[in-house]
Amino acid sequence: MPTLDMPDRPHLDSFRRQARALQRAVRAGDPDAIARLARHHPGAVPGDTGGLRLSAAQLVVAREYGFASWPRLTRYLETVAEHGWDTGLGAAPAAGPAHEFCRLACLTYSREDGPARWAQARQLLAAHPDLTTMDIWAAAAAARPHDVGRLLAEQPRRATERGGPFRWRPLYYLVYSRFDLAVPAADVLAVARLLLDAGADPDEGYLFDALPSPFTLLTGVFGHGELGTRRQPHHPHWQALGRLLLDAGADPNDAQTLYNRMFDPDNSHLELLFDYGLGAGDGGPWKRRIADLATPARMLRVQLRWAVEHHQAARVRLLAEHGVDFRSPFEDDGPAWGPGDGRTPVELALLNGDTGIADYLVAQGAAPPGPDPVRELIAAAFRADRSTVDRIVAAHPDAVAEARRSRPGLIVWAATQAPIATVTLLTELGFDVNAYGRGDAPVEQPWETALHQSAGNGNAALTRLLLELGADPHLRDQRFDATPLDWARHLHQPSTAAVLEPVTAVNR
C-alpha cells in the first residue's frame, strides 16, 4: 500500500531528486531514511549503508508511492503525461462561449458538479445557439449530430483531436455531458456513432489529478460517485450508450465505474458489464499502460467485500453467480476500505451481523468459520442481540476488552450499519461514544465520530441518542476540521441540524 500521495502534477525529475536525497541520507546514516529503506526494500538493510546504490533508493521511492518497481513508476509517469487531466480546470472560467459551455455542461468529478452548473450551461447555449457550429467539442457536448457530422466531413481527424477547456477528445465531452437530462437518445447515439466511425477510441480515458485509476468513457456513461446521484448522475441514456461503446470494443473491466457505482445497491451496471465479459480478460489497454492496476478478478473481489460489509445481498448473489471467489480469505493488499486482513467473506458477513449473507455463502460452498468469541460478540451486538452478548460475556469475560482493543472505532461503523439499539449496547460494553473511526467501512482509521455520521446522514433519532450517551458535539473530524453541526449543514440535513444547533457553542 502507498504511504505517500501522488503530487498533483507529477514529473519524473521530482522523483529522481527524491531518490537521490534518500540515497544521500541513508549513506549519511540518517535513522529515518534507514527506516524507510527497511520498510520498503525487499532485502535486508545492508550492514554498510554507506554504499547504497541509487537503484535501491529508487525502488524504495517507487514503493512509497504504491508501485512495485522504479520502471513501473516511470511508465506510469509517462502515462500521466499523455493521459493526465487536472480537475482544477473545472473551476476556472474558460475563454469563449463554446469552451465555457463545455466546462459547465460536463461532469468533472470535482466539487463543482451539480444541477446549478448544468443550468448555467443551458442558459449559455440558449444565449449563443450557434456555439456548436464551429466547435466539435461543444457540438459533441450538446449532442448535435448535424454539426458533428458537418465538422467531421470537413476534417475527419477532428474525431481524435484533443481540445475544448479540458483538452478532452469529442466523444468524451458527449459521454460526460449532463446539461440536458432530456436530450434525445437518437441524437446522443448518432453523435457517438459518427465519432466512433471516424476513429474515436472506445477505451478513451484520463487520469484525474494523476490518480492511477482511469476515468474512461464507460466511467462517464455509468456516472455516480462520492457526491451522490443528484450531483453525479449516470448518463440519461446510459444503457444504450454503454452497449454502443462495449459493442465498439470498450473493455468492461472498468475499475472506476465499479467504485463509483458500489455505493448504490442497484446492480444494473454490473448486469450489463457481465454481458460483455466483466471479470475476464487481461484488463485491457489501461492495465497494459498501468501494470499496478488490479486484475479483473481482484476488482470483483473488492466489490464482493464491499457488498458483504454493506448488506448488499443481491450484489453478493450476482457476484457469486458470475464466478467471483467467495471462499478464500482476503489476503492481498487492497484499498484502505478493503484490506487484506485474512478474513473470509463469511466471517465478514457474520462480523457485521448479516446472517442472511453468511448463510447464503455457506450454502453455496463457503466454509463456516470456527469459533471466535470476539467476532461472535461483535456480530451479536450488530444484531442488537443482547441475550447472546450476555452469554458470550459470561463465558468469555476477556472478549469485551479484546473487542475494544482491536476495534476502538467500532461505534462509528455501527452508527451507519447497525440498528440504533446497537449503539446503546456498545456503549454499555465500554466502547467510547466519542471514538474516532470510519463510517463508510469497518476499518480503524480515525476520521470522524459517530455523531458526525448521524448528523451527516440526517438520522435525528440516533443523533439525540448519541447526545444522551455523552457524545460531544464540539469534536471536529480529522479530514475537514468540522463539527457534527457543520456536517449536517453541509450535507443539507435540517433535521439533525435542528437537534445540534442548541447544543453546539459558536466559535468554540
CATH architecture of the largest domain, please?
Alpha Horseshoe
What's the rounded overall pLDDT mean?
A: 93
What share of residues are in beta strands? under 5%
Helical coverage, percent range: 40-55%
Radius of gyration: 26 Å
Structural class, please? mainly alpha
**Which CATH class of the largest domain?**
Mainly Alpha
For this structure, the CATH topology of the largest domain is Serine Threonine Protein Phosphatase 5, Tetratricopeptide repeat
Strand order of the largest sheet: 1-2-3
Instruction: Tell me, briefly, the overall form.
Output: globular
> How many beta strands in the DSSP annotation?
3
Domain count, please report it: 4
Distance between the termini: 38 Å
Provide a count of the helices: 28
Outline the structure in words:
The structure is a single chain. By secondary structure, the chain is mainly alpha-helical. It has four domains: 12-66, no CATH class; 87-250, Alpha Horseshoe (Serine Threonine Protein Phosphatase 5, Tetratricopeptide repeat), CATH 1.25.40; 297-363, Serine Threonine Protein Phosphatase 5, Tetratricopeptide repeat, CATH 1.25.40; 410-503, Ankyrin repeat-containing domain (Serine Threonine Protein Phosphatase 5, Tetratricopeptide repeat, Alpha Horseshoe), CATH 1.25.40.20. It has 28 helices and three strands. It has helices spanning 12-27, 31-40, 54-64, 70-83, 97-105, 115-127, 136-141, 145-154, 170-176, 185-197, 217-222, 238-247, 255-261, 268-275, 284-289, 296-309, 313-321, 345-351, 355-363, 373-382, 386-395, 399-406, 410-417, 420-428, 450-456, 460-468, 484-490, 494-500, and strands spanning 84-85, 205-208, 215-216. A three-stranded mixed β-sheet has the order 1-2-3. β2 and β3 form a beta hairpin. It is globular and about 80 Å long. It starts with 11 loop residues before the first helix and ends in an 8-residue tail after the last helix.
